[in-house]
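Why does residue order matter? Because the sequence determines the fold. Keep that principle in mind as you read this record.
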Amino acid sequence: MIDFFKRWQLVGKGLSSAKKRRRIEESDLRDFLQTGWPLRAVVLLAFAAGLAGLIFTGAQEEPAKKFLLCLLIFATAVAQLWINHPATFRRNSLLCLVMATMLAQLGVVKILLSQAAGGFLDLQLAPLLMPYAFAPLVLSVLLGRNHGLYAAVFCSLWGSFLIGRIDPVFLVISLITGFIGVFVTHQVRRRSRLVRAGVYVGLATWVLAAAFGQIGPVIWESPAQTDWGMIGWQSLAAFATGLATSIVVSGLLPVLEHLFKITTDISWLEMSDLNHPLLKRLSLEAPGTYHHSLAVANLSEAAAEAVGANPTICRVASYFHDVGKLVKPHYFTENMGQCDNPHDELTPTMSALIIIAHVKEGVDLALKHKLNSEIIDVIRQHHGTSTVSYFLQRALQQQEDARLGGKIMNLRADDIPEVSEESFRYPGPRPCTKEAALVSLADAIESASRSLERPTPQRIEDLVRSIIKSRLDEGQLEESPLTLSEIWRAAESFRFTLCNMLHARIAYPKRESPAENPAREERPAAA
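Structure:
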């Protein structure tokens, strides 16, 4: 509060700007809630309590024994999550998502069983209305296929204990339908793919239920005695439940994405629309930067596919990585055109400040337009802690010239200001994800490729390798999870894509008209 009043006093004196840049808030309390072990323990205890409530309610045989077995399975589930998915286990919001989703599926199973036991639901229909694939579908789309398989296994094990007796048929059907749901939701980029997954889950449920005798029975010796009406209802229930589950999951995804700060491939694809207000401004006010961003998107997307990163994130983040240049677009070479270079009137230090500021301005615009946090991270990290080398060299040259002139003018060495490299360095941080590292490399390579006079394949390869080696020597890729093998696979992808983008074209001869070349005379036609 004191800082607030001091700032407004400076504004009143004209010594500060009334505009306050948006910043990413860092809170110790938020970090504690996200990664602290007390809240993690509360989430795990809440799931165990919910599991106890499901087992001890209703008519259960030996509920204490079943609960003990479920606790042992729960300990196994926690250990597997800790070993195989440590990032999810350490992040309390994701742990809450996993546990809440599985508990929700088990709760629906318990409700259906209690309705059937109370006579409100036909016992022949109850097993076919179980949402076997709910938790696997949700976690597969939000967190990945491994999390979906995790939910399929443990929801099947716990669900089999909720039946009056341990039911192997329930266990097998739940496992197989859950696995099929996860298998058909690989890289879901359209919501229609979820509906397709529901169709496959419904068909699998129907086939398995028919195989285990939950549909029917069909009296083949006397078809007239078969209750075909009930078979029809059972078949409809099996198929419709799988389809309805996928529709419910599709509707819940936007809510879960917002609550748990997760972005699925579906949302990334929606954000790749070039009609976003920031991208429209970029195309009109900074067309050079706009086309540069499109080229970086093509380079980074192809490289992401080569190294197993997320290509959609690379493409979308590349679109927005330079939006900060909208504040002063004409200070960047790609937008200057034929006009005078404004840096000719500035000192190298001031020019570097303007260039470096586009990162902070980009974060400011991204926060204002509520862009995804992963996009903001790429904006902050795509230059890492590298230097604005052109203006740094220019400042060093001016310093050397001043020293030579100072010897002639008999000036003291202390009168010549020193050049601080930190004044020409981006604030960072360095790229921390595969996608941020690939966008950073693609940005540097695409910018440098514009200076190639004759972009032959060998020159392009030399350029790509020199830039990557320079980034490695500077340590700009030390915090990214890219391995050396992946970096050089990405380099080969950059080389291939650049060769296709900068390929030479045939110079077609211009057809001259008689008016343009009067010296050429038409030959008389042969008799």
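The radius of gyration is 32 Å.
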